[in-house]
Amino acid sequence: MLGRLSLVACFALVSLASASPLQLPLGNAPFKVATELEVLSNPESFTTLSNPSLPGYKVRVKPVKGLCDTEVKQHVGYLDVDEDRHFFFWFFESKRDPKTDPVTLWLNGGPGCSSMTGLLMELGPCRPTPGGAGVVPNNYTWNSVSSVLFLDQPVNVGFSYSDDGKDKALDTEAAAKDVYAFLLIFFSTFKRYNPLDFHVFGESYAGHYIPAIGGVIIEGNKDAESEGFPVINLKSLGIGNGLVDPLVQYEYYADMACNPPGYDPVVTDKSTCASMRSKVKTCKSLINACYKYGSPMSCVPGSYYCNAAEISPYQSTGYNPYDVRKKCDSGNSLCYPIMNDIVAWLNTPEIRSTLGVGDIEFKSCNMQVNLDFQLKGDWMHPFVKLIPSMLDEAGVRVLIYAGDADFICNWLGNKAWTLELEWSGKEEYNSAKDKPWTTESGLDAGEFRSYGPFTFVRVNGAGHMVPYDQPDAALDMFSSWLAKTKFTGTY
């Protein structure tokens, strides 16, 4: 889910002029960590994992039984960085066959919003009851076909925290580096998962995070074996209703506000719609400056001007920015009552004790983190430039999906940037036909376009959080993508 400042906007600091992959310096010392048996046998306290080649990084982990999912092995813990930054994670094994099923990392966006939203509102094995007194099973959980790892990042998001309580001026590059270090230690300890296919999925501002994480994994894999690190078997990236290419996407806010295909207009004042359209040229000029120079000075003006020009008019209507069909629920700043239930359940003393989070108070989103990312100029960075090399050189498949009722990272803008992406299959992808998509249960779920390793899926009747609005379709899409049974050029 995306964050909200004085306006709502789609939810880096690395120069992408050359679109070079992010890098994490590796050492040459082998991993010396606690064995998996030691981790599994210590349910009451954390076992600490480390590696001398990753100075400043440690992972605390412990097993959890019967919480949220009573059928599978679970682990919770923290990635500790430089003794003062601590990133919370929660891992669920696959219900089907954890020995052969893939592993998927899930990230929510914001920037500054917790991945526990994905776990407890969208694709995890349970959902809170009204009021947050307990949880009930989610029959459409994604860990029915894949082990799933939920990570709260950057620091001070969800149950993640810093020792002094201050934000560490993070950006997408720093976040990707931390995630990669975590994955190295995780896979070196839980070795049975390391040979399995690995996928990175997320939504919203994760449209920034995921290409960056994919880039640093691919770069790290080049020297991993010689340096004594595990090779991460990255197979695909999946981005739902993401902010990936702002230069293209910001052009489509007026269309989604004033003439959303298949839905009633939200912004009905013609002069307001005309104003939104008239400001696109200036908006794109400012984003272009960010794409060219990449500094905070060149990137911050675009985020503030464009969000005010293209998003604020929608927000002023009182409609849900994540779903053009609904008014924003006044009982929660993020528009959904279930968000209050998630916060209540996670802050229950017995749940906090089981998770080992101490006195950290869970909050869905941290708006100071959101502001910090904006002030670093991260918002308008073109992480889209990392995707072509993944498709053309690294053999990584990329799935872009979008609910058709979302405003904030709408399907119009997402489909548009996939058509403008410069890669070897651009001509064939652009000339491909949109094909209908029907789930195994017979649901008319939407349509897709695909060529080679690249696919775009439009999901019918879903807002920003596709697995929440259309759980059947979301699980069908996810499982079919992993199994390569749909969303291919020959389907």
Automatic annotation (TrEMBL):
Enzyme class: hydrolase
Domain of life from the UniProt record: Eukaryota
Protein name: Carboxypeptidase
Family as reported in the entry's similarity comment: Belongs to the peptidase S10 family.
GO biological process: cellular response to nitrogen starvation; macroautophagy; phytochelatin biosynthetic process; zymogen activation
Stretch forming the signal peptide: 1-19
GO function term, MF aspect, one: serine-type carboxypeptidase activity
Record field: catalytic activity: Release of a C-terminal amino acid with broad specificity
Record-level GO cellular component terms: extracellular region; fungal-type vacuole lumen
